[in-house]
Amino acid sequence: NIMSIYLKDIPLEQAWRRWLLALQESSINGVLGRETLALDEDLVGRVLAESIWAKICSPHYHASAMDGYAVVAEDTQTALPSRPVSIRPGTRAKSVDMGDALPEFASAVIPLEQVETLDERGNPAVDIRKPHIILIRQAVAPWSSIRMMGEDMVATQLVLSAGQRIRPVDLGAIAASGHCEVVVAQKPLVAIIPTGTELVPVGQAVKPGDIIEFNSMVLAGQVQEWGGIAKRYPILADDFDLIVKTTAEAAEEADLILINAGSSAGAEDFTSRVVEKLGELLVHGVAIRPGHPVVLGMVQNNSGLNVPCIGVPGYPVSAALTGEIFIEPTLDIWTGLVKNPPQEVQAQLTRKVNSSAGDDDYVRLMAGRVGEKLLAAPLPRGAGVISSLVKADGITVLPRGTQGEEAGCSVPVRLYRSPQWLERTLFISGSHDLTLDLLADELFREQIRVLCTNVGSLGGLLALQQQEAHAAGTHLLDPESGDYNISYIRQYVPGEKVYLIRWVKRIQGLMTVHGNPKKVQGLVDLRRPDVTFINRQRGAGTRVLLDYHLKQLAIDPTEISGYPREEVTHLAVAAAVASGRADCGLGIAPAAAALQLDFIPLFHEEYELAIPVENMANPFIQRMLETVRTADFQRRVLNLPGYEIKGMGEIRTVVE
To answer: Tens of pLDDT along 619-633?
Structure first.
């Protein structure tokens, strides 16, 4: 139980310099090795270690570019439609097919459809390839319809440079230039050692406290994508001697060792001590977020060679970022890969982002265009939020020394996706509803992305007012009129003409664990001291609905245990109840069903989409409305509990 001690967090640039220096001193700061391989399709994705120079010309002879007759161009110069030139095939004309070598006498090819072929009697020849005479009614220029020798490539010409990743089309160019084998960079072998007593393999049943081990699979996928060979080791318990033994074994075969988890400073975080025992610890702690407890070092194998070792943090987002910052560039050095510069765009933050002043903060974002604005919506920041890796369109770095950026600020976004996707995006802000996930699934097949920012109904209307969303999901009850949404649109989107689209009627109710052990039946039970509640955030339609009915029942929110605790989606409320953090929460029936909770129905409500008039002409909005009106889509919605779909996708009213 010896506590490991952090070395002081150091700036990323300094950590990277230490790492490079150690690679140089170990003579592994370049291409690890080379191998000569036969030219075939398995080479796709490999990195050229030697440039390809053409051995022969392509084509390596003058070739006919047409089916026709090879002729001497000068023989045709007097040809006219009314006075054709006649030539007998032989030493001055010859039938050729496309790709045939040009006869030595010839200087042009006349396409077959531009000649007349006659037999001995002057009639059209039966066999146009063996005529007695050919008639030419138009002069041809020298070297017309001919692929000249070296037209594509000339011997000694550079075809492909070392450092390029081979593509399928490159195989053809290599073959055409006279090569039958190529020299490529050796693929680095990367050993991945997952550690943690709490880890269980994928597919094994889990119990509270168990963590499914998938980091090694993600890291292995990254390694393979970046040109390496990944070898995943079995899960190791938090046992210092066992980790030392396995790391030493890996050092006998691997070019790089990744020890996943155990890189922090807890009693069972052994990675830094393992590296120290087997070699030299270079870095323990880098001033980046997420992922600052990175370990960099060298371990020595039985041959006396230093093998680089990286202690990768255990949280999934931290692990993936460590891959991007340290592992990928290291593999690029070893394979000699010369990359295209990353695609980068400037985008406007949709909300404020706080940042630690002492660290470079890597923030993943969803991005898309609304009108003239290219928007970047920050994703949840937790180091364990694996879904942020899946949803991210790109990443921005908030440099140390700053404490974040304000909403509306323009930031550089390094893209993970093609920029074209950003132009094919629908931003739907506001209240969360499971039908939006169904919509996203449907439209993705048509190459339209639906990005949902779950900020509550009021937040969605504010996004419309700020022109930061195409549409907003809203279900705000007006206590005065008993109607939904209209008065709030007038208040929060003033001066705008907004279409209110019917979506679904749904049931709101209390979600409890299976069996409802606290026997909760309605809102009055929330007063009980033995009942804990989980709430929705301020501005959410569900919160507005709850507060309205609490007032009707003369229940003071301060009487409710857990009222100040908030979640931002129905599913998050359901998860809080399922995990035991609360006895109940207000939400929709599909969220309860998703986590096998009991559901006590209480209220019917109108969930609608608000769309500003200028967005109604957007072709993606029109396609969305067409989709939700189809029988197939509505059938999918009705498979979820607690929904009515009458009029779904139709305009209920226009709010002036």
So the answer is: 999 999 999 999 999
